Amino acid sequence: MLDAQGRAISYLRISITDRCNFRCLYCMPEHGLPWLPKAEILSYEEIAEVVRQLVPAGIRRLRITGGEPTIRPQLEILIGLLKTIPGVEDVALSTNGVTLAGKAAGYRAAGLDRVNMSSDSLRPDRIAAIARRNLGFDPIAALAAAERAGLSPVKVNVVLMRGTNDDEIEDYARLTRDHPWHVRFIELMPVGELRDLEWRHVVPSAEVLERCERALRGLVSADGTRPAGNGPAVYYRGAEAAGTIGVITPMTHTYCGDCNRVRLTADGRLRTCLFGTHEVGFRDPLRRGEPLLPLFRQALAEKPPEHHLLDMQNGGLRALSQVGG
Ligand code: SAM
Q1: Which among 118, 201, 317 is the best mutation to test ligand 1's pocket, defined by most ligand atoms within 8 Å of the CB?
Q2: Which of 18, 27, 317 to mutate to test the pocket of ligand 1 (most atoms within 8 A of CB)?
Q3: What's the rounded mean pLDDT across residues 239-259?
Q4: What is the secondary structure of 89-111 as a DSSP string?
């Protein structure tokens, strides 16, 4: 189905919880947020029903996210429900990786196609400092487990913060030389804990690419062989590297013209733009047994032409965890 700007919307990101076992410096306050009551959160069966109703409108690719989706019990049940809906081509997961070493094989067996792991450091002690939780896990072992389980492609999302983890850019670059993993550097965004973000904390993609190019002795465009996915990353590859480097640049570029996605919050609101306020309530009509397709059509007609990320500094979103970042 096309939205009012003629963009084909085929990708649904599904937040299944607003809770998280991390408290990342730039995302959630250390003491947490007021959590959604359980009764307001869609059950796995309700989520699957939303997807069943949206597939005829062209939704084909799904991502399970949060909060941290792996803290919701029996995630494998949801993966299995979604993967067996006729018309669903791809089910992906965004996770901080804490459970991956132990659970990647189970997620794969349930039908998960691929995984994006957020990891703002390759050093366990620094992860604990950024996440303000020490859950004692090794990010490299988590990524290796995902690869071994056959989740493919394996992507690593890194939010760079000047002075906090930007000294690891070269380490991440070298990771792509040795492993078929796809590292994506994401510019820090002024939402959540970081409404007071100053530009000096953002590490622009031009600098990231220059430093990766030096670390890998050359970098060529890999957009011709981009790893499977739906996102706005632009990809590069080091000479003879097994993986790629991508940059996602919400602060220095916009890519709303190619937007192919909408989001479902854990409490069943369809959000048409991550950095907007437009949303349509799905949960109550769903629970009353009403059809969702007319509401979906209306939502796409109203999807904003572009995001207003910089306005988010003035209010609205408290954290990406609330809408499924
Ligand atoms: N817990 C899951 C994870 O870790 O991937 C999914 C939800 S998390 C909110 C999704 C992504 O949003 C993570 O990669 C996180 O780093 C990113 N994120 C959250 N707040 C951000 C901000 N202010 N700027 C940039 N990225 C942010």
Answers
A1: 118
A2: 27
A3: 87
A4: -EEEEEE-STTHHHHHHHHHHHT
